[in-house]
Amino acid sequence: MIERFSLWDRSMAGIHISSHPLVRHHLVALRNPQTRSPEFRRTVRNLTLLLASEATAHLPLRTVEALTPLGTAPGGMLADRVAIVPILRAGLGMADGLLELIPDAEVWHVGLYRDERTLQPREYYNKLPRQCAATLAIVVDPMLATGGSAARTCQILHNAGISRLIFIALLAAPEGVAAFSASMPDVPVFVGAMDEKLNAAGFIVPGLGDAGDRQFGTSEPAGDHSVAIP
Ligand code: PRP
User: Fold this and answer.
1) Is the Cβ atom of 207 under 6 angstroms away from ligand 1?
2) CB of 30 shorter than 6 A to ligand 1
3) What are the residue ranges spanned by the domains of the chain?
4) Cβ of residue 119 lying under 6 Å from some atom of ligand 1
5) Atom number of ligand 1 nearest to Cα 146
6) How far, in Å, from the CA of 114 to the mean position of ligand 1?
7) Which of 121, 175, 179 is closest to 153 using CA atoms?
């Protein structure tokens, strides 16, 4: 069956669920338990490029004259000073992709892990600069499950004086999106797909497992993947 969608045609207030065919295509590999870390990381990067392109589609520009070999052309450059904020550790792979699109962005690392019992985020690292001069922060994390980690990170950024935020995730659960938008109504959320639900352990179902472990190979047996040369 061939499915046809227009981009972002299922937008709710502030929540943008991608229906880009390439996003849907790459999510199949990302979800597959047979996908090993190298391909998983490449896929995270590709999905980030696609989602980031949509998430940044309406950023303001300042008008410039672009120099060409034959003269000048009217041009535009990002008006914002951008900070990319990966939530450690799973957000790291997304930050790499986003940096390719916005190479001048600063990268501010925030480390959170979820307490397995309470599912509440615990902060263990914060590398925001002393003077936060960015005017826009783009927060990235592959998974928006209960929404606790996303909301805590946005609160940290608000407390640092950053009022304009965008959140990008690869997968989200409806419960988490609802909780996040209730606490951060002004932060637009761009996700690759909205899954069915959270399970009792707070994992997105059907989801893709643990995005951090799958990116960094910490859930895989070491294994020998060499090919014997006859
Ligand atoms: C995962 C994920 C998010 C968080 C989502 O990280 O990458 O940061 O859980 O859950 P929430 O929406 O319920 O807060 P995890 O705590 O497993 O840490 P890791 O990135 O180091 O693997």
Assistant:
1) no
2) no
3) 8-58+78-216
4) yes
5) 13
6) 6
7) 121
Give yes or no for residue 44 CB within 6 A of ligand 1. no
The residue behind tokens 């090919």 is 227
Hey, what are 114's tokens?
Answer: 């979820």
Distance 213 CA to ligand 1 centre (A): 10
pTM above 0.70, yes or no: yes
Q: What is the pLDDT of residues 62-110, one digit of tens each?
A: 999 999 999 999 999 999 999 999 999 999 999 999 999 999 999 999 9
Q: Does the beta carbon of 148 sit less than 6 angstroms from any atom of ligand 1? A: yes
Confidence of residue 132 (pLDDT cuts 50, 70, 90): confident
* CATH architecture assignment, domain 8-58+78-216: 3-Layer(aba) Sandwich (3.40)
Residue 86's nearest CA partner among 126, 39, 131 is 126
pLDDT score for 13: 77
